[in-house]
Amino acid sequence: MPSRNRQQIDWIILSIYLALVSIGWAMIYTVGYGQEGYEDSFFEFLKNPAGKQLIWVGIGLISLFSTYLIDGKFWRTFANIIYIACMIMLGLVLVLGKEINGATAWFDFGGGMTLQPSEFAKFGTVVALASYLGAYANNLRSPKTIAYAVAFFLAPVALLLLQPDAGSALVFMALQLVLFREGLSGTILIVELLAGTILCAGFVTPPTHLIGILAAIGTFLLVWNTPKRPYWLAAFILLLTAGVLGIQYGQSTLVLLGAISVFLAMGVFQWVKKKERLVMLVVGAVVVSSVLAFMANLGFNSLPHHQQERIFVWLKPSEADPQGAAYNLNHSKMAIASGGLTGKGFLEGTFTQGNFVPEQTTDFIFCAVGEEQGFIGVLFIISLYVFLLVRIVLVAERQRSDFNRLYAYGIASILFVHFLINIGMTMGLMPIIGIPLPFLSKGGSSLIAYSIMIGVLLKLDAEKN
Hints:
Blueprint lengths: L1 H7 L2 H23 L8 H4 L3 H21 L3 H5 L1 H18 L1 E3 L2 E6 L5 E2 L1 H19 L7 H19 L4 H7 L3 H6 L4 H19 L2 H18 L4 H20 L3 H21 L3 H26 L3 H11 L11 H12 L11 H4 L11 H33 L4 H25 L17 H20 L2
Antiparallel strand pairs: 1-2, 2-3
Helix pairs in contact: 1-21, 2-4, 2-19, 2-21, 4-21, 6-7, 6-8, 7-8, 7-20, 7-21, 8-9, 11-15, 12-13, 12-14, 12-15, 13-14, 14-15, 17-19, 19-20, 20-21
């Protein structure tokens, strides 16, 4: 059996894993190299970030191959126990954990050794969700089934928000993608995306302005469903132009009242035309969206100033303090841009080795790639992640077991969101929420947890039961 498993191991996934881990360690090495290099003594070297990460790389490899030796049925059988153990760890860290960067998310064992249970909770949640959805061929058209499935990842989200660790909490929400693969209506995802867009807009846009925009969108939807659409659209465009001119001349209140009046009038017109369902749907959407906008604005104003600055860094970077909240992002962009096409070369990055970008071995490790390896290096790293995700999806689709398929999709979802947000935030495309780049960022908990995930995936695929 061992030789058979070795023949069936997915060497593509394993090779990409080893490549990413190796590149990650090299980037951590170059960040810590600085101008003076490293101590000649190996034991002294092990005390710096690159040396410590080398130890974690070794433990990660042991974790991967150890989990590969375990029978795949073990994970399905004990999925719920693993999940409960992870939830207990998330609860205990709130009481016994150490606060770092404002979050009580780590167990401290002394000597610089810490453990972040949220990283292992991702694995525990994925196996539990896969076990639940795969055990009895649950039908995701049933509200009860959906509620139970969602509860699996909402429980860790609630515990993480208490730490508070919004970044890790957001990652767990990615497991919704597993539900959509298994038949959950895509309408729910569209509604969530629209609600998220309105909330984000509400953070940085006055609610009255946003309500006017929503009223205009609602009017457009009602106009689109009129019999003589071209004439109504022409009238709508004229009114929209008048509204834009009115705002430019300082008549915002008048424009808002006009937009609401036209929207209500169009709603009455369509109601008279016996399109009650359309009117209720559009008016209901505008009302709910307006309430969300007010809630977002109210919540934003109640946040501490430094958290407001973080939101401005993402949504309104021009208004953020360049020497405060925007410092990390500005230097991150400069480091990546300075690499050009081919980069400055290994150990030659001025931003990288000058420590101009805070948290460069963890959240902003991608900056080191951009500066020293340039666009070609960045493209290579992104390609590795894309190939890894595509390969995991292909592996998922060839499984005969529902549990195996669901597990693979769960891992792909977690990796995708980590990859998207981390790289996006170094370029200002995503909010800076402090989540690592899988396999590249410094940190033992993350590397070990992802090594376990990959090891289990390889084992399940090798057995294909």
